[in-house]
Amino acid sequence: MAKARSCGLPAMARALGVLFAVFYAGIGFSAPRPEWINLGERPGDKMLAEYFRVQVEKLAERCLAEVPTAETWPQWVARYRQQLMEMLGLYPMPPRTPLEPVVTGTTDWEDVVIEKLHFQSLPKLYVTANLYRPKEVAGKLPAILYVCGHGAVRKGDISFGNKCAYQHYGLALARRGYVCLVIDTVQLGEIEGIHHGTYRYGMWWWNNRGYTPAGIEAWNSIRAIDYLQSRPEVDPERIGISGRSGGGAYSWWTAAVDERIKAAVPVAGITDLADHVLDGCVEGHCDCMYIANTYRWDYPLVAALVAPRALLIGNTDNDDIFPEDGVRRLYEKVRKVYAALGVEDKCQLAVFPGRHEDVPQLQEVTLRWFDKHLKGTEQPVEVPLPKPLQPEQLKVFETLPAEQLNKTIHEHFIPKAAPALPSSAAEWEKWAAAWKNALVEKCFAGWPAEAPPLDFAQAYELQGEGVQLAAWDYTSEQAIRLRLYVLAPVADTLPQTVRVRVLGEDCWRELVASLRCAFAEKITQDALVDEKVQLPEPDQAGWERLTGKLRQDNVWLVAVAPRGVGPSAWNANDRKRVQIERRFMLIGQTSDGMRVWDVRRALQALRQMPALREAKVVLEGKGSAGILGLYAAIFEPDIASVELLQPPTEHRQGPYFLNVEKIFDVPQAVALVAWQTPVRLQTAHPDAWTYPREVLKLLQKTKHLTIEPGEQPSEK
What we know:
Layout: H1 9-23, H2 43-62, H3 73-87, E1 102-109, E2 112-122, E3 125-134, E4 141-147, E5 154-155, E6 158-159, H4 167-175, E7 179-183, H5 205-209, H6 213-230, E8 234-244, H7 246-257, E9 261-267, H8 273-278, H9 300-304, E10 310-316, H10 324-340, E11 347-352, H11 360-375, H12 391-394, H13 409-412, H14 425-443, E12 457-464, E13 467-477, E14 480-489, E15 497-502, H15 505-515, H16 520-527, H17 540-550, E16 555-560, H18 574-586, H19 591-606, E17 616-622, H20 624-635, E18 641-645, H21 660-663, H22 666-674, E19 679-683, H23 690-698, E20 705-709
Parallel strand pairs: 4-7, 4-8, 8-9, 9-10, 10-11, 15-16, 15-17, 17-18, 18-19, 19-20
Antiparallel strand pairs: 1-2, 2-3, 3-7, 5-6, 12-13, 13-14, 14-16
Helix pairs in contact: 6-7, 15-17, 19-20, 20-22, 22-23
């Protein structure tokens, strides 16, 4: 073993004193770095960057704005712990089914025994692990749950689990008189599941379900503590947790929700929203690092839930995915909570030179922290910690279990709601009110509590070929300025009907192709958001169809381009767009959810136009864009009807709203609108709409739903 440093008791105390004096100084907000919020060069990118800045500042400002006191702590911690468990998918808590632990073999190394084992945190959800214990055990020992970061260990097609990469902590802790359980993660375990649903595989429906692999990792850790407490050599009252990188994050989730943990050392596993959203750290992280942020938290609130238990936050000073400035901001807020509870000495920060790496100094302070708070003693530490074992010595399974659910647990962990049909009109009205409230609280909590003035102003007005085109700008919310288009026949009569068409990107391009026939120069300026955009060729047939509709029965057309569509389109790079969507997730939104708000604000703006005040408003849209209009109709009054062309039959096809599948799916949303506002569907799947048919039959309003044959839905 390489002997890097050995500290006795006095030397250790001096080292920690110097460490704390150096690294606790100067904590506070640092100036934003020049590269913050670099999303791209389009106007929509710059608008979005400002929007994220505004949102993050608001969430940071309200996070722990009121520090709980010793008197208010019990109610405070109960409230926020329940919220966190919900955002992890753990409220209500899944059933604690039998663990069915199996030890498949043992390995000896010097004075340590390593057990190779697995247990089932849920039936058929396997957790592979190594348990390290001293060969000689006298009495009950403290135990550490070590949760692994992203340290894949593979040979060919065989995954040995990331537990192999973190063996040094198990060995070191066992030699110091602990039982240490090192568990594999879902993504990089012996049975390889998925952490990268949105990051890599386009599984945006995870948002609909409120699913995050962080919840699975927290649940597996909770069950791992159950297993540790079942071991005869473990003192169930002296359990700690640690991990670094991804394991650092899982340490936070678990310590925050499980009070059986008495000491925690999360390393390089958390920073604040400013670092993730504005500085772009999100682009270096997979989905397991994040909660489904229903209640719109900043991360100091997660850390505060560990109080008043012993918490050491470890980091390096040049970590590009957990930057020091955000870690320090977070620590300063959490420190105030510990101070208010009278236990400020139990919350410490240790920062050492290095990049995103497991530096020996972090290994040392981790072991010392557990000695102090779980054993009440201090022992010499030799670092760096060795990794002498081969992966084959730590592998649990010879053959992977065929019945495992690890690879598909994201499909099952949070069940999709399956609403029954109401038994009476009174019951339906009760459900409708509850669903509407749930949408506001669980899906659209990111909507502004107080909307700013619309500042509805005309940008330009043109005439061509008997048609008048007017572009109007409005403020949807702070930092979001959008444009809608009003097309009308050149005539003195007011419209009887205004058709408000919600645009997706494909429909925007179709509109541009039509308008280029008469308004080429101006619409080209709006559509050409950067030099790389290829505009569609003028479409004369589309222009004829468009103007033909305008001349029918005094109909005007209003085209609404919500954020990210048309003039406000953001970065066209696929990878960058993924990270933009993930930024919305981090602040408790989805881009689609905020587009519903944009449609609502467009409708509110139109009511300010004298020419449209008496006209019937028909909301229409194709594909997912139509569903945005459908949801806007739930909340906006005075909609005459809603028309959906090729709508998706379930939210899994889009649009994506946070938690919506915990409440209902698209057919129930249609019913929620159609019982008060007529809805017309053109669909290739008439059988998918049984639910709204049955509800309207019960309510004796069958004429409120019209279903016509349509084409197969196109892509979103």
